[in-house]
Every structure is written in C-alpha cells, then in structure tokens.
C-alpha cells in the first residue's frame, strides 16, 4: 500500500506498523502492531505490544529523519524540547512596574538595571525564571540564583495571577514572554522568609526602592540568593525530566 505524506508529495511508503491508542478515566495506553500482508490486497494487524519509552524514542527518531522540524536557533536559546523552551536574557536596563500595598514602594514604575536571567516555559503551564551572573552566555554548569523579583516563588515559578500569557512556546515568542513578565505589576514577594528573595539586611520592599531610586548603575549581583543548583537542573525541570 502506497502512502502519500504531508512532507513529500512523491514519497512512496509501505504500511508496516500501526499504533492503537486507548483512553479512558484520565489514563492512556498504546500498543504497536505489525501489519500482516495476506495476498495482494488484504491486510490485518498482528499481535500488539505495549509502547514503552524506548520504542517511542525509536519512532520519534525515525520520524525526525524524514521530516524537517528544525530551524535556526538564536544564540539566546539554551534548550528546546517537544513542548518546552529555555532562553537567556543578557543583563540590561528595562522598565518595571510595581503596585503594592506597602507605602515603601506603593505604585511606581522606573527603568532599572537587571541581572542576567534565564526563562523557561513548557506546555504543562510551567513558567519560571532564575538569575545568572556575568555577561556571557551561560553553560549547563553555570550556577543559578533566585530571581530577585516579586511574584516569583522560591522554586523560580512565576505567579501569573490574571496575566494573559502567550499561547505558544515557539522560539519566535521569547520577546512576548519577556514583555509579559516585565510589563506586569510586581505586587508582593512570593519567596518568604529572611534573605530568601534578596541577600540583604533590608527587606525586599526597601531593596527595590533603592533600585527604583537609581542607586545602582548595574544590578548588584552580590545581593542574589544562592539556590545551590545549576542551569542543567533548571533545564531538566522545564523539559519535564523531574515531572
């Protein structure tokens, strides 16, 4: 049996295997079957075998050799998975917006310096950020630090609240995710406890007031809080290795 595919108009293929997918009560199960040829036209399915991770990887690799799914990756992209992406943002100055119930800051917006940041998103709804030191592209062994922002948990996950986030995790959408983060209101610290958000004797509200007041020309990275993790750990979490 010749099969016409979506990626090559002239591709000639023989039906060789079939995958049956069973779903119900929130669970899924798949079996793979050889196609048995009987005569010139009759075909049937052979006995099925459960689809395991190894078999699925073999299938994905085979599909990858036949269809072009890649493209140019900008240097800021650190990792791309099937439904995930991790990218780096150089230290820079960007506008931030605060809207708090504390009189120390209240409602305020200024252009301020930021440390190097690494963002990660995936199709399961995870949106996270961590900080890195230096101005060069980080490697998998680069230590990561707590992102020093309000609305960010100790895990690095970003509290979205009522934010409408981008629908896609494509590499072309990194700017939209960054804009979504920096244009939202920072309302309160989500990393609670002494020195969990900022490594300083003053509290996060007081620290960010000094930043908003223009005390620093570059972000004071000595104020970042250690996580004892590396970029490799962050990427594994985003890509789903720890899910």
UniProtKB/TrEMBL annotation:
Keywords: Plasmid
Superkingdom per UniProt: Bacteria
InterPro entries associated with the record: Prok-E2_D, PRTRC_protein-B
Official protein name in the record: PRTRC system protein B
Protein species of origin: Pelobacter propionicus (strain DSM 2379 / NBRC 103807 / OttBd1)
């Amino acid at each position: 049996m010749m099969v016409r595919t979506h990626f090559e108009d002239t591709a000639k293929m023989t039906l060789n295997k079939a995958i049956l997918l069973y779903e119900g009560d929130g669970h899924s199960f798949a079996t793979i079957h050889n196609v048995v040829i009987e005569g010139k036209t009759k075909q049937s399915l052979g006995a099925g075998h459960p689809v395991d991770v190894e078999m699925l990887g073999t299938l994905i690799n085979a599909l990858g050799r036949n269809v072009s799914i890649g493209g140019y990756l900008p240097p800021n992209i650190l990792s791309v998975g099937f439904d995930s992406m991790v990218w780096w943002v150089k230290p820079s100055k960007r506008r931030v917006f605060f809207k708090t119930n504390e009189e120390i800051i209240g409602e305020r917006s200024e252009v301020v310096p930021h440390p190097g940041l690494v963002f990660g998103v995936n199709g399961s709804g995870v949106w996270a950020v961590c900080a890195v030191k230096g101005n060069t592209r980080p490697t998998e062994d680069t230590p990561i630090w707590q992102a020093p922002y309000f609305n960010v948990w100790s895990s690095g996950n970003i509290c979205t609240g009522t934010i409408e986030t981008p629908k896609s995790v494509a590499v072309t959408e990194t700017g939209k995710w960054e804009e979504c983060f920096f244009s939202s209101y920072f309302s309160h610290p989500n990393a609670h406890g002494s020195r969990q958000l900022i490594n300083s004797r003053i509290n996060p509200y007081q620290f960010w007031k000094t930043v908003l007041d223009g005390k620093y020309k570059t972000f004071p990275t000595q104020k970042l809080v250690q996580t004892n993790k590396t970029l490799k750990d962050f990427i594994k979490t985003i890509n789903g290795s720890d899910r």
